[in-house]
Design goal:
The chain has one helix spanning 64-71, and strands at 4-8, 14-21, 25-32, 35-40, 49-55, 83-93, 98-107, 110-126, 129-130, 133-134, 138-150, 161-162, 166-167, 169-183. It is mainly β. The longest helix has 8 residues, at 64-71. It starts with a strand and ends in a 7-residue tail after the last strand.
C-alpha cells in the first residue's frame, strides 16, 4: 500500500488548552481553523508525517478581556508570533488505534519537542460539497491528540501571586487537538 495524503478540514479541526486558574478551577481556551496535513502509509504508520498550523490571533476563552490578555506580550505575543506550528515525524504505534507522535511544537517563536498521545477514531466515506455541488464521496478520518506542556518552556511566563502563595496560572497546560482529516482528491482509500 502506498502513502496517502490527507488535509485537515479546518471547519471540523480545532485545538483546546486548559490551565489551572487561581489554584481552584480550570480555564479553557479554543483555537479553531487549524490548518494541517499528514502523509501516512497504513502498512507503516511509524513513517507518518504530520504538519499543523494554528492561528493564535483567534484564541477564544469566552471572556474578551482575558482573550486580549492572552494575545498580548504577557502570554502569546500574537503581534510578533501570530501562528503556532507542529511538525511531527516520529510515530510509535502503541495499539491498533493508539499512537505517540513526537515532533517540534513552536509557540511564541520557541521550538521544543512535544509528544502527543493520539487516538485514531476511525474513517468513513461522506458527501463532499463544493460550490453547492456534491463532489463526493470523500474519505474522512478522525483523531484526538493530547499532550501536557510546561508553558515556561515556550516563554509564556506571566503570572501573579494570590493569597497563601498560590498563583493565577498553572505552569502545566493540557492541550487537546481534534482532527478531521480528508483524503486528498485522487488518492486511493486506504
Amino acid at each position: 500500500m502506498a502513502t496517502t495524503k490527507w488535509f485537515f478540514e479546518p471547519g471540523h479541526t480545532g485545538a483546546e488548552f486548559r490551565a489551572r486558574h487561581m489554584m481552584v478551577t480550570n480555564v479553557r481556551g479554543q483555537l479553531k481553523n487549524v490548518q494541517g496535513s499528514m502523509e501516512v502509509d497504513p502498512e507503516r504508520p511509524e513513517k507518518a508525517r504530520i504538519e499543523a498550523t494554528v492561528d493564535a490571533t483567534q484564541v477564544y476563552t469566552g471572556q474578551p478581556q482575558r482573550d486580549g490578555h492572552l494575545r498580548s506580550a504577557d502570554f502569546f505575543d500574537v503581534e510578533n508570533h501570530p501562528t503556532w506550528t507542529f511538525s511531527g515525524s516520529r510515530v510509535h504505534q502503541a495499539s491498533a488505534s493508539e499512537f505517540e507522535v513526537t515532533g517540534d511544537l513552536t509557540v511564541r517563536g520557541v521550538t521544543r519537542p512535544v509528544t502527543f498521545d493520539v487516538v485514531y477514531l476511525g474513517q468513513w466515506d461522506t458527501p463532499w460539497w463544493e460550490d453547492g455541488k456534491d463532489m463526493g464521496p470523500r474519505r474522512r478520518a478522525g483523531f484526538t491528540a493530547k499532550a501536557r506542556v510546561n508553558r515556561h518552556d515556550f516563554g509564556v511566563s506571566w503570572n501573579d501571586v494570590v493569597d497563601r502563595g498560590g498563583v493565577v496560572v498553572s505552569d502545566l497546560i493540557d492541550v487537546v487537538v481534534d482532527v478531521e482529516a480528508v483524503l486528498e482528491a485522487g488518492e486511493p482509500p486506504p
